[in-house]
């Protein structure tokens, strides 16, 4: 059984599970083994309240949920006895959209999934999480807990996944320490750390390794950026040295927009000015085994959320001969191990693919591989067993058109946030034969949390804004 930063072991699990160790963390009971990983109240007997929808249902009135939990614990205990590979997912609550399907993919690969995360992460509700370790309030304390946990469980995990950029950047601060070497996605002693952590390092590495990349310039002031833009020609792109989900990306069509873009990214002391390329933006998700790509899929970004340069919420699958070559170049350059991806742009005038950015953490589209005959679960299983099999995408459709997918929950969130309720028609099953239905029904508790904690929260915020507007207008 795993051990984390755990205090005061409780002999009897108040969940009523026979095969579950229970611990008391920060004065509250917590189950560190069940896939549900819920906190429970200390009450007399076995009357435990579960927060379900908006009200509490007593254990006596939720037999199905109890039996499901009880059966799940027996299955998990049996699976651990069978010696399945242990995988640890380390993430914060900020990047949960990218990781919603990762526990399911790992579970289908035959892995026991442990989750180490910050508080209020929606992933703790996933039924595919076998072991929920104690949660922390912020990322720095999460890394300290990770260090203590790995010191106590040396060589326990077959694979440790860094789930988001916040955790990745915090881990890089420990560069040179022995505990972080050996399992980090790249060699901590190599230049690959600088390449994956800053856009400046990635720009220079692409130039040295002949990877197609837009003409880019490192600027230290708005004056130098203006001089370069006048010489190179507009439009241009401004990018901060670090950023994710389009947060530090702006486009400028002229000198006035250049100044506004610079101010909107909080006037950084150093930033990248990049020549704008007109084309279709896309993303490629990759599974790499120490620099060797073993599975990948590519798709156009058909629709985005939170602005033009935000994360994708609708994809259209594609193939291109240049992408495999770029993947091989990136693997050779970084020797990356794990789930990663990169953004690119397809210039349809000369049919060229140009790399825009590399993601040293899992992008959100790995579960879509089954629509392109790429099963990442099989790829992960073979990788952990030492079997190297390359899985290339095959984009096909019965209608002759490339398959398109509206991503859940990203696309629904966009419709609610932008009040584009007509676009919700895409979630009617069978409405289009060349669409891939993305909603997950195999994880009902996680689905419920997304619906009632995310979607209803956005609807409530919209309603409150409208009420506030009418009150001000009435006054």
UniProtKB/TrEMBL annotation:
ATP-binding found in the keyword field: yes
Keyword Nucleotide-binding: yes
InterPro entries: ATP-grasp, ATP_grasp_subdomain_1, CPAse_ATP-bd
Keywords: ATP-binding, Nucleotide-binding
Every ATP-grasp domain range: 203-385
Superkingdom, taxonomy of origin: Bacteria
Single GO term (MF): ATP binding
Pfam families: CPSase_L_D2
Annotated protein name in UniProt: ATP-grasp domain-containing protein
């Amino acid at each position: 059984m795993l051990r984390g930063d755990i205090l005061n072991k409780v002999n009897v699990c108040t969940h009523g599970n026979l095969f579950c160790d229970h611990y008391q963390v920060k004065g509250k009971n917590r189950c560190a083994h069940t896939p549900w990983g819920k906190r429970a109240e200390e009450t007399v007997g076995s009357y435990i309240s579960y927060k379900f929808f908006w009200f509490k249902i007593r254990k006596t009135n939720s037999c199905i949920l109890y039996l499901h939990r009880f059966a799940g614990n027996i299955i998990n205990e049996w699976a651990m006895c069978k010696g399945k590979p242990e995988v640890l997912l380390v993430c914060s609550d900020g990047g949960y959209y990218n990781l919603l399907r990762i526990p399911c993919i790992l579970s289908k690969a035959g892995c026991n999934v442990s989750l180490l995360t910050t508080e209020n992460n929606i992933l703790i509700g996933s039924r595919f999480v076998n072991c929920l370790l104690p949660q922390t309030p912020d990322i720095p304390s999460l890394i300290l807990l990770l260090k203590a946990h790995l010191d106590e469980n040396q060589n326990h995990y077959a694979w440790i996944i860094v789930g988001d950029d916040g955790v990745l950047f915090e881990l890089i601060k420990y560069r040179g320490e022995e505990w972080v070497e050996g399992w980090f996605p790249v060699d901590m002693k190599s230049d690959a750390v600088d390449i994956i952590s800053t856009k400046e390092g990635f720009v220079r590495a692409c130039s040295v390794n002949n990877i197609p990349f837009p003409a880019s310039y490192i600027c230290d002031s708005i004056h130098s950026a203006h001089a370069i833009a006048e010489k190179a020609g507009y439009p241009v792109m401004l990018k901060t040295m670090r950023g994710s989900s389009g947060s530090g990306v702006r486009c400028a069509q002229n000198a006035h927009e250049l100044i506004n873009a610079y101010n909107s990214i909080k006037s950084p002391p150093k930033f990248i000015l990049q020549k704008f390329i007109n084309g279709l933006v896309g993303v490629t998700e990759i599974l790499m085994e120490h620099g060797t790509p073993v599975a990948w899929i590519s798709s156009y970004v058909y629709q985005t959320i939170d602005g033009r340069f935000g994360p994708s919420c609708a994809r259209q699958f594609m193939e291109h001969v240049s992408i495999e070559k770029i993947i091989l170049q990136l693997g050779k350059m970084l020797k990356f191990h794990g789930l990663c991806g990169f953004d690119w742009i397809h210039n349809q005038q000369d049919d060229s693919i140009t790399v825009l950015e590399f993601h040293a953490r899992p992008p959100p589209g790995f579960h879509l591989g089954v629509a392109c005959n790429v099963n990442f679960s099989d790829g992960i299983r073979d990788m952990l067993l030492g079997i190297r099999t390359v899985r290339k995408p095959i984009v096909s459709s019965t209608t002759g058109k490339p398959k398109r997918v509206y991503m859940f929950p990203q696309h629904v969130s966009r419709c609610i946030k932008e009040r584009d309720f007509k676009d919700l028609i895409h979630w009617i099953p069978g409405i289009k034969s060349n669409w891939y239905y993305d909603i997950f029904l195999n994880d009902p508790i996680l689905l419920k949390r997304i619906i009632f904690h995310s979607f209803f929260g956005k609807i409530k915020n919209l309603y409150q804004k409208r009420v506030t507007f009418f009150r001000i207008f009435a006054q």
